[in-house]
Structure formats: structure tokens, C-alpha cells
């Protein structure tokens, strides 16, 4: 990462609430081709979330604690704040003196841009401002939020515009919190109504919707130079398993998340 930072653009996409099992099923069935073509070996990596809901998980990720591989560690991290005794900080880890990755990348010369999705990025009140205020530039509107059936398209439009207006020599760290998977997601299933409610199947339909548009995000982020892309879920969610619905609880489908990182090659 010490050769990547300062050279490449960096993209972090959190597919908010995406379940590992659903993500794997769709990749194996060929239902998310635009994501699957970039996944190492065509498969998601199984990891454990650092938090059971959006705010906790993103606070950890922005401190360098991306989801942890679901096997015995320690696992060297891509990014880490300076912290004495850290067993997951290795020679290849990008270590920053600041309290969070966003500030660390800004200190390394990056323009930092946040395109919010769920309510913790909406800047309505102090709590909804904590995460977006880490960035040089942050965006949120109802069109990007959980109730919009075209939220991800609008997010990609903003991302492409942010890339286009940045001077060619300036490196970019772009963060996108994808709200489409989060409830309500019933409207992504053909013929569904609000009375039908959200289900595991509508969750899957939301991921298919995201896949139809994510290629444009990848193209924008690799239009200037090579880009390191990190795509993962921040946590999963339950749809009736063991009597639970939702997240912010300690169920395996909440803690187990899909993860991938890969390079998007720039212009040749």
C-alpha cells in the first residue's frame, strides 16, 4: 500500500447491509456479472464486519479496520493509524499519523469525496454529520437515500462529476455508501408492492440493480489512472432468521460480509 498511496486513485464502496450469502449466490448464478468480473477468482471473500450497524462499522473502517478475513489471524491490514503494539500493522501497510484514513489520505495529497447513502451520511443533525465531515467534499440528498428506487444511479452521476472536475494531477479518494440494499428494498423486485414488504429476494434484486450501474462507477474511477477499488458490505441483515429481522444484533448473517479489493486499470 505504500506504493499505491500517492500513485493510484482509491475507491471505497460499501454496499450497505449486503449479506454474504446473498452476494455469493448471485455471483455464482451469474446474476451480478459487472461485479463478478472484478472479484478475484470470481468469488467474494468471506469476512467479519467490525460492527453490526452502519455507524459503528464505518467508524472502524475509516480508522483502518476493514472487515477481517474469516479465519485465524493476525491479518495484515491495508491501512492503519499509528498505534503501538498493533499486530495487524505490517511493512506493506500504509500507516498514517492522523486519527482516520480520510485525513491520512488528505495529508498524502488526496482530494477526499464522500457520496452518502443511508441516514448516517445525511447531515441532518450532529450525528448525521460526523462521518461526512471527515471529507473535503460530501454529498447527500433524498435522491441518494434508502427510499429512492434510483439512488445508485444518482450516486454514480455524482461520482462521475467529482472525477471530471478534479485536476488531472490530483489524486482522489472516493467513498460511496450504497443505500439500495438497505430496507426498504421491496421496490427493486418486479411487481412488488409496499404491502409485500422486504425479503431476502428483494435484497437480492437490489444487488442486481446496483450491478447494472456499477460499471459506470468503475469506468469513471479508472478514467485518469489506475485505481485501487475496495468493495464490501459494512454488515448484513436478518430476514426472519431465528426470529430476527434487521441488524444491530449479534447474528451470523449480520457479522458475515462479502469483501473484495482489486485494481481497475487506467488508460493505456
From TrEMBL:
Gene3D superfamilies: Alkaline Phosphatase, subunit A (3.40.720.10)
Alphabetical list of Pfam families matching this protein: Sulfatase
Keywords attached to this entry: Hydrolase
Domain Sulfatase N-terminal intervals: 9-250
Gene Ontology terms for molecular function: hydrolase activity
SUPFAM superfamilies, per the entry: Alkaline phosphatase-like
Protein name: STM4013/SEN3800 family hydrolase
UniProt organism field: Rhodococcus kronopolitis
